[in-house]
Write a structure and sequence with these properties.
Layout: H1 10-18, H2 32-64, H3 89-107, H4 111-114, E1 122-126, H5 133-146, E2 150-153, E3 157-161, E4 167-171, H6 174-195, E5 199-205, H7 221-227, E6 237-243, E7 258-262
């Protein structure tokens, strides 16, 4: 910026206009063209930097999120797992996509799925009658095993030896079921912490473990435990169960990463 003397005569003003660059004391603004050129260069530099950053982030994401093929859920043998079911095609397809695929992908090293909403902590299969529910659940658990995923199945019957040395069989009670599930959850949690392995626990008929009501003022202790599976409290544990009480599945399950699906052909 220059400082030029100021004249109050018309002649002085005219001379100033004609020879403005020769006056050493008058303040004159920096030409606008110079500012625009500087700002333009700065804008180009910022734009180029942002473009490079965007490209770098895209490349990193593409490299880190390479999706595994859907075929990782398939078994070669037609007589194993879900392959042996000729019906329930829609349900089988949904289970492969939303339950089996995420778990198998994690086993194969896809850590992104483990941190995403794609991994469900639980599964409830519903139907108005019992037919097909146990069959599908059994085939699903076998499918997990064949893919190398750890599973645990609840036993419906307990056996003891009476005073005569005879084996006595009876159906297990609710408190025994809950105790079994709790023990399996602890084992699964330990397995995950030590080896990073997920375990799928089959609860069978969930109506035998807790009362099912669509609206509940308070969760049971067992339901509260289910709500924390595959979370901070009980990591690495996935559960599956079924029920014929299709209109009584508690609403709070909708707020959890639990897949509720119908048995469909």
């Amino acid at each position: 910026m220059k400082v030029l003397p100021v004249s109050f005569s018309f002649k002085g003003i005219q001379q100033r206009d004609n020879e403005i660059n020769n006056y050493p004391f008058l303040y004159t603004a920096k030409p606008h063209n110079g500012l625009r050129k500087e700002d333009n260069n700065r804008f180009k530099a910022i734009t180029a930097s942002l473009a490079l950053i965007a490209v770098a982030v895209t490349l990193i994401n593409l490299k880190g999120r390479k999706k595994l093929p859907e075929s990782i859920v398939e078994l070669a043998e037609k007589s194993k797992g879900l392959n042996k079911l000729t019906k329930y095609e829609k349900t089988v397809s949904e289970l492969k996509e939303k339950i089996i695929y995420p778990l198998k992908a994690i086993n194969l090293g896809d850590n992104n799925i483990a941190k995403s909403k794609k991994l469900k902590s639980g599964l409830i299969i519903t139907n108005t009658h019992k037919d097909g529910l146990e069959e599908l659940t059994s085939a699903l658990m076998e499918h997990f095993k064949e893919l190398g995923i750890e599973t645990k199945d609840i036993s419906e019957i307990t056996t003891r030896i009476n005073s005569k040395g005879e084996a006595v069989h009876r159906n297990i009670r609710r408190n025994e079921r809950i105790k079994w599930v709790y023990n399996q959850i602890q084992n699964a949690k330990k397995s995950f912490e030590e080896e990073g392995k997920y375990t799928v626990i089959n609860l069978g008929d969930i109506g035998k473990l807790t009362d099912l009501k669509i609206i509940k003022s308070q969760k049971s202790n067992f339901e509260d435990m289910l709500s924390n599976l595959n979370g901070k409290t009980y990591p690495g544990v996935i559960w599956t169960g079924w029920t014929t009480k299709t209109n009584s599945v508690p609403l709070f399950y909708n707020d959890l990463p639990v897949l509720i699906t119908k048995l469909m052909d």
